[in-house]
Every structure is written in C-alpha cells, then in structure tokens.
Request: fold
Amino acid sequence: MTNLLELYAKLVGLGLLGFILGRKLPNTVPSGLAQFLFYVGVPISIVSFLYQTDLNGQIWIAPAIAYLAILLGALLAWVAIKWQAYMTNTMPQQPTQGSLLLAAMVGNTGYLGFPITLAMVGEKYFAWALFYDLLGSLFGAYGLGVALAATFGRNVSNYWQITKAIFINPALWSFGFGLLLRQVTIPNLVEFCLDKLAWIAVALSLVLIGMRLSQLKSWSSLPQVGISLAIKMLIVPLILGSILPLFGVTGSAALVIVLQMAMPPAFATLVIAETFNLDRDLAVTALAAGAIVLLVTLPFWLWLF
Reply:
C-alpha cells in the first residue's frame, strides 16, 4: 500500500508540476524536453536499468504478448465499431475509425510503463517492461499502427518518415548497447552516475506527460473514446492476463506484463493520427482521458495480479 501511495504521489505530483509548467512556459519547452528525453534521457535510462536487471527467464515472450495485446485490441475495437454502427445505423468516418483502432491498440509503455514498473515491481523485472516496449509496442505502433492509419487516413506519403523513425530510434540503439555493456564490468562511480541520471530521466518523463496534457484541450470525443479505453485498459489485460500462466509467466513477471498491457494510449497514436490525417481530436481525448483512468485502474491490477 505504501508503494502505491508513493507512486501516486510521484505520478500526480510530477504530472501536476508538468501541467503547471506547460501552461506557464513557452510551447517550445515541452518540445525541447521531449527531444532531450528521446535522444539522451531515455537511452541513458535503458542502458542503466538494462545493466542492472535480470535477463534470466522467459523475457523474450514479453514482445510476443505485446503483439497479441495489440492484435486483440484492434480486433475488439473493430467489432465495437461495427456494433455501434449497427445500433445507431451510422458508420463513423474512416479517420475516426482509424483513431479508435489506434487508441485500443498501443499503450504508453515507455514514459508511463517504465516508472510504474520500477516503482511497483522493482529493477529486477524491468527487462520484461523493456522488451515489451521496445520489441513490442514500438513496432506495433509504427508497423501495424501505420498500416491501419494509411488505410483509414488521407495521407499515405510518409512511409519513409515512419521507417526512418523506427530505425534511427535512439532507444533501440541504446538497447543494443546496454546488452553489450552487460558483458563488461564498469567502475562503481560510473554505474552510480548512470543510475542517478536514469532516475532523473524517469522523473522528467512524468513532468513531460503533464506538460503534454496541459496542451490537450479537446474532450468532445469522450463518449466514443470510452469504448477504446475500456478495450485497451480493461478487457485486453483481463483476457490475456488470465492466460499468462499458460505461457509460463507468473508472479512479478506476470504483473509487469499486465501493467504494460493496461497502460493508456501512447503519444505515438497522436503522432500517427496527425501524420495520416486521422481524427486528431479523438486521439487527443484518448490520451487525456486514459491518463486519468489509469489512476483508477492501477490499484485493481495490483490487487488482481
């Protein structure tokens, strides 16, 4: 219970700080912080935590489960869209369908998933969250997510930009470097400095989420978003979480996977929506509402698993 209260204090406190700063500071500040975290902060965190984490066990199953969660979310969202169209006799516009699908598929398993995993489960099982995010969510968002966006959107001229975004992603390169670094022994002082920088980056990522939320002003699509959020943050984690023992994943490892599956929609969904001219207002609403819903659902997952 203490860990949960500490986590909420950090999530709400740092998020609120970011929200206030986002309203007071120029719009260039959140963008600058995002660039810093993307190119420096997050890669340092990955190298540091990967150096300390335990890679024993079946961690390679984490990205496979991530793909299952993404596909199941997309399937259930598509069924929900068809059911809603049948009940109302009105089919949503294709850009809206695309945003609904994206919101049900890919979660914020990095900026939110990492600090929550570290706070509730510890560094020992961080590799599960890391593999889920970098080898699962990343390729799910910019792979299947982009394919769907191109199908439902109005702009299909940015494939090279998306491909480039995947392969020059510093997080992937730092992941490889972190694996290599595990083969050598680094001085205690270097390890200490890496650890402190990693935790600073984690704190800054929560501040950045607050800044981003301060810039989200549209709630007009909340009724439609509710279905996608229910699928993404409740139904998919409950279904797949209940069958994790069949894959040999139990205990703390299972909790990490469930927490990653239960994260709210990722910022990548907004990036993709803007790139392919999907329903941006719906994507914005999904991000804001999902961050709030997480505060309610998190204790449930911790109790259940």
Remarks:
- The longest helix spans residues 61-88.
- The mean pLDDT is 87.
